[in-house]
Amino acid sequence: MSSSKGFFHEFREFAVKGSVVDLAVGVIIGAAFSKIVDSMVKDIIMPLVNFLVGGSVDFTNKFLVLSQPAGYTGPQTYADLTKAGATVLAWGNFLTILINFILLAFVIFLMVRGINAARRRHEEAPAPAKPVPPPEDVALLREIRDLLRK
């Protein structure tokens, strides 16, 4: 009984440690950030790339049929062929995912670069100027005044 009590106490200490809580917060924020970056690539960057290229940059339906079931006469789409049991080399889907990854990595690079530049500007901000010491005669007069007050 006492060992289970020690176990739960140890688990509670582990679960509420700052590092575990920080990790959980990081994972949650990372998931939300991932959705933002995915949306930026899918909804902003890819339409611009498609516009500049003059067509859709989507290779998901490009594939090579290595073998298909004997007598199969159905549609020759990737989904239908794989459902029928055909061996399909989906090079287009891989290429689309690779392009999305490169764009995603580039967007993250730009964001991190901007954050680092802002951080450097903040760190390099000039320190507040030290007050200029009063001239010697004023300092001497203040000293005399303070002595007379005593």
From TrEMBL:
Gene Ontology MF terms in the entry: mechanosensitive monoatomic ion channel activity
Localisation: Cell inner membrane; Membrane
Chain ranges passing through the membrane: 20-37, 88-112
The alphabetical list of record keywords is: Cell inner membrane, Cell membrane, Ion channel, Ion transport, Membrane, Transmembrane, Transmembrane helix, Transport
Concerning InterPro entries, the annotation shows:
MS_channel (IPR001185), MSC/AndL (IPR037673), MscL_channel (IPR036019)
Q: Quote the cellular component terms of the Gene Ontology held in the record.
A: plasma membrane
Entry keyword Nucleus: no
Where in this chain does the entry annotate a coiled-coil region? none
The annotated topology with respect to the bilayer is: Multi-pass membrane protein
Superkingdom classification of source:
Bacteria
Protein purpose: Channel that opens in response to stretch forces in the membrane lipid bilayer. May participate in the regulation of osmotic pressure changes within the cell.
Family named by the database record: Belongs to the MscL family.
Quaternary structure, from the entry: Homopentamer.
Q: What is this protein called?
A: Large-conductance mechanosensitive channel
Lineage, top ranks: Bacteria, Pseudomonadati, Pseudomonadota, Betaproteobacteria, Burkholderiales
